[in-house]
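name: query_chain
kind: protein
chains: 1
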Amino acid sequence: MPRLFIVTVLFFALGCSGPSGSPPDASAAGPDASAGLDAAIPPDASAGLDAAMPPDADLEYDAGPVCTSQADCGDPVNDLVANVCVGAHCRTPGPLVSIEFVSSYGTSLTQAGSQPRVQLTRLILGKHLDGTSVTCADLAQRSGATQATRSLLDKDPQINQAYRGLTALTWTGTPQGQVSFRIFGDVPRGDGNVLYAEAWYGQRDQNDPTGDRAAVSCTEGADLLAAPDGARFVVAFGP
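structure:
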């Protein structure tokens, strides 16, 4: 499946200066960031901190080829939105909705020498192929934290990744306190799934991160079944 579009990204830093923006990767901070971040996250954002996913069990899909894992259906690394293996058949997730991830980095990750260089954002179906639930604890066991083990989730035969986006992060100035990046993308609708994001210290290598993993953000029960275009979902890294 061809890639849809990567991301157009802005970056807001609380208490730092020097605005600039550089699509398609995340960059640029601004002195009015505290106001911008408040504007980016609506007052009822706590109700919307869940996030997207396909496909919901109640939706109807035409049966595709027989499969035993997602590898029989698509390539989650090279396809921004990949076909999934559900009910022993390959299926196309969707329909798509345009959303915004507001990725918040705590002070432990914003200081010089501690800043991640890429963010890997995944939307994972809430059930393994054997029907058991996917949880944040489960993903922590299955994923890798080094460059040598970075592909463990991508190759896991029990996991379906309907969305996988890699975004380069550009830091400017000397941030003071929390920093947020705004990442836009088209993702498949669905509910009851897992939003799983990783920050990595190394630069991007095509569609993979490099170096060691810096931090993880995980939200179970992500729900984007009825979210409107432009909905915002928080991805929080570190204190």
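note: The chain is about 10% helix and 30% strand.
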